[in-house]
Design brief:
Helices cover 26% and strands 32% of the residues. With 247 residues, it is of the alpha+beta class. The chain has 2 domains: 64 residues, Winged helix-like DNA-binding domain superfamily/Winged helix DNA-binding domain (Arc Repressor Mutant, subunit A), CATH 1.10.10; 159 residues, Chorismate lyase-like (Chorismate lyase), CATH 3.40.1410. It has a 6-stranded antiparallel beta sheet with strand order 4-5-6-9-8-7. A two-stranded antiparallel sheet has the order 1-2. Strands 3-10 form a two-stranded parallel sheet.
């Protein structure tokens, strides 16, 4: 790599911050492609005429900001651009994938009917021990796991739901066509979580891994709960966007 002019030593503007800005410029200009491996540390040191400690501190900042990704045993790579999900309307993974020209797929991991716990009963507003259909599935985009999901539906509301084509037909379509249930409202909460070993392996993430956990409760027009779901999105691949307007 060609050596450039030495970074200037300015008060309040440390060398590692200047090095970080240099690296960020390479990323944002697409000179370094998404998913591409960074040049060797010694080459970057030679280019900027700085120490390895300076380069490592610069990289550490960009890893924290999500611009770079360290893969143990392999190296440091430019992070791929996150997929954007807007939360200003009822969300359908299938429709979202189509709108973003993503080849989508759903892998059903488990479907079972069981007595619900007190926690699930509270969310569904039914009695503890009532039967529910529990659906566990993995959602993929372009062959890449993006979201692990668990859904609970009262069995009395949707009998024999486990017999439906939950892998290829959107759940909202099944509810509307097969059960005459129209969803008109939903309440969601979003929080970051450390992924469990099971979820981390399902989503092909490195340890430790953060997911965006979305709890979703869907309602009918008369405010009756239809289902409760917990979706765990890859924190390194998906971001959420909210549209706010003045009242």
């Amino acid at each position: 790599m060609k050596k450039q002019k030495q970074l200037s030593k300015k008060a309040g503007f440390p060398l590692y911050v200047q090095a970080k800005e240099y690296l960020l410029g390479k990323i944002e200009s697409s000179e370094w492609a998404e998913g591409g491996m960074l040049p060797r540390e010694e080459d970057l040191c030679r280019t900027l005429d700085v120490s390895r400690i300076t380069i490592r501190e610069a990289m550490k900042l960009l890893v924290r900001e999500g611009k770079l990704e360290r893969i143990p045993g392999k190296g440091t790579f430019v992070s791929r651009r996150k997929l954007e999900q807007r939360l200003d309307r009822q969300f359908s993974f299938t429709r979202w994938a189509v709108l973003n020209a993503i080849e989508h797929a759903t892998r059903i991991l488990r479907v079972e009917t069981l007595a619900c716990t007190s926690h699930i009963a509270k969310h569904l507003e039914i009695g503890e021990g009532n039967l529910v259909t529990r659906i566990e599935r993995l959602r993929l985009g372009n062959g890449e796991p993006l979201m692990a999901e668990e859904i609970w539906v009262p069995e009395a509301l949707c009998p024999e739901l486990h017999l439906k084509d939950l892998a290829f037909v959107p759940l909202h379509d099944i509810l509307a066509k097969d059960y005459g249930i129209e969803l008109v409202e939903a309440i969601e909460s979003i929080e970051p979580r450390v992924a469990s070993d099971t979820v981390r392996q399902l989503l092909h993430m490195h340890d430790p891994a953060l997911v965006q956990a979305v709890e979703h409760t869907a309602y009918t027009v008369d405010h009756k709960v239809v289902y409760f779901a917990v979706a765990q999105y890859r924190g390194d691949r998906v971001k959420f966007t909210f549209e706010l307007t003045a009242s």
